[in-house]
Structures are given as C-alpha cells and as structure tokens.
TrEMBL record:
Superkingdom: Bacteria
InterPro entries (UniProt xref): Peptidase_M15A_C (IPR013230), Peptidoglycan-bd-like (IPR002477), PGBD-like_sf (IPR036365), PGBDSf (IPR036366), Zn_M74/Hedgehog-like (IPR009045)
Protein source organism: Streptomyces durocortorensis
Signal peptide feature range: 1-19
Lineage of source species: Bacteria, Bacillati, Actinomycetota, Actinomycetes, Kitasatosporales
One Pfam family of this chain: Peptidase_M15_3
Name of this protein: Peptidoglycan-binding protein
Alphabetical UniProt keywords: Signal
Length: 260
C-alpha cells in the first residue's frame, strides 16, 4: 500500500523557501509537517511502499519499470496464455494491461499511467505481494525458499508472479477469499508429500487451492484465463481434494470431472 514520503519532501522544501526567500524574518521556522497520513494537495505522484512508477509505460517501453508492471498484470494474459516477465513492453503486455484496466473499470488503452499505477498501489502490500496473498501462504515448506530446483531468489520471485495471477483470478471470481494450502516445496518437502519428480512446486510456480466458496471445478475453469499453464483438478489422479495451478513453460490442463 502507499506511503507518502513526498509530504516530508514538500515540508522540507517549504522550509528552504522560508530560509532563503529574504522576505521572512530569520527566525521563521519551517512550516509544520502535515499530519500523518494526510495527502498534500498537488500530490500527483503517489509514492508506494513496494515500488513506485513515474510517467507512463507503453508499447516500446523497456526496463525494470516494465518488468515490475508485467509481474502485476501477469494474471491478465488472455485464455490459455502467459506473458513474459522480460522487461520488454510488446503487444502481449499491452493486451494484458488493457485487460487489467477493464477488470478495474479504468479506460482500457493499454498504456500504464497514473490511474493504472494507483490501482496497483491499492492492490499491493509493502513487500510487493498482492493484498490478498502472502509469501507465507505460498511456502509452507521452509522459511527461506531454499532447496528447490531453482535458487531461493528465483523460487520466491516465481511465487510472487503466481500470487499476482491468483489475485487476478480472485477478482474475476467476485473478490471472495481463496484458500491456498501450499506452494513452494524444496526437493525434500516434495518427496515427503509424494509430489511428482518434476513438480512445479519445486520452482515456486505452483499453488494448491482448497475448495473455498468457489469449488474445485470453478477454480480450475477460471485458472485457464489467468496465466496458469498447468491446471490439475478433480478427476486427475491425486487431485480430487484440491485444485493445483501453476505457471511455467508447457501447457498441461487436466480436470476431467470438470470438463477440462
Ligand atoms: Zn500441486
């Protein structure tokens, strides 16, 4: 969520103007700081505790700001697709931004500007996770994301993308709570639960969902629209009691009892 260091900046500037303006007595003290949580008028570029964008991003833009945006809109790739998190703003990213904008009632022009960024700020916590999901939910195996098939940093980064996909799916399903029973597994955690030898849980890409109020089949069906290339649910061996969703390369969907 947003924080507002800009308020401090403005009050500091006001003090500097008073000190050097020449028309005010030397004893003038700086203007009082705004009350905590207040927003100075003219605060057009809200700062955020996780990541703050400036300006606009559009097709042709590139770099870390684009990569950060791609993580946030990873849940809007269109049915059966997945967008690259590569810092290159191409047609697929533009389409994802447009879908995100539509989902939240913003003008859907595929250009990420203040309205889009402000919506993202509302949706994210200071650790960059979406407000309705946590790293702890996505890792019930260990505390440091180590021991998987990729580095701890990569596993954690993959889990962040997974959470933004879940946030998109949650919103599309009416913003009702979703139940996440696990995500990342080290190789040993995966073995302990009898996971597949190539399980995407060991990469941080996967999440296992409880039925919640949605039901396993509705979750599996919705997951197809939000960047999950692997969906396993009722009717697939071992998946009658949860719906497994994951990103990563290669599509495999199977939930025969749900028509998938
Ligand atoms: Zn799973």
């Amino acid at each position: 969520m947003r924080s507002r260091p800009i308020g401090l900046l403005l009050s500091t500037l006001a003090g500097a103007v008073l000190a050097f303006g020449g028309t005010t007595a030397a004893s003038a003290s700086p203007a009082p700081a705004p009350a905590p949580g207040s927003v100075p008028s003219g605060d057009v570029g809200a700062a955020d505790g996780c990541y703050t964008w400036s300006g606009t991003l559009q097709e042709g833009s590139s770099g870390e700001a684009v990569r950060q945006l791609q993580i946030r809109v990873a849940g809007y790739p269109g049915t059966g697709n997945q967008i690259a998190i590569d810092g290159a703003f191409g047609p697929a990213t533009k389409a994802a931004v447009s879908r995100f904008q539509s989902a939240y009632g913003l003008a859907a022009d595929g250009i990420a500007g203040p309205a889009t960024f402000n919506k993202i700020y509302q949706l994210q916590d200071d650790d960059c996770t979406p407000v309705n999901f946590t790293y702890a939910e996505l890792n019930r195996c260990n505390s440091d994301w180590s021991g998987g098939k990729v580095s701890a940093a990569t596993a954690r980064a993959n889990a962040l993308v997974t959470m933004w996909k879940l946030q998109a799916m949650r919103h599309a399903m009416g913003d009702r709570p979703m139940t996440v029973n696990g995500g990342f597994r080290s190789v040993s955690c995966n073995s302990a639960v009898g996971g597949a030898a190539n399980s995407r849980h060991m990469y941080g890409h996967a999440a296992d969902l409880g039925a919640g109020s949605q039901g396993f089949c509705a979750l599996a069906q919705a997951a197809r629209n939000h960047g999950f290339t692997e969906i396993l649910g009722p009717g697939y061996p071992g998946h009658n009691d949860h719906t497994h969703v994951a990103g990563g390369s290669g599509r495999f969907w199977s939930a025969p009892s749900c028509g998938i």
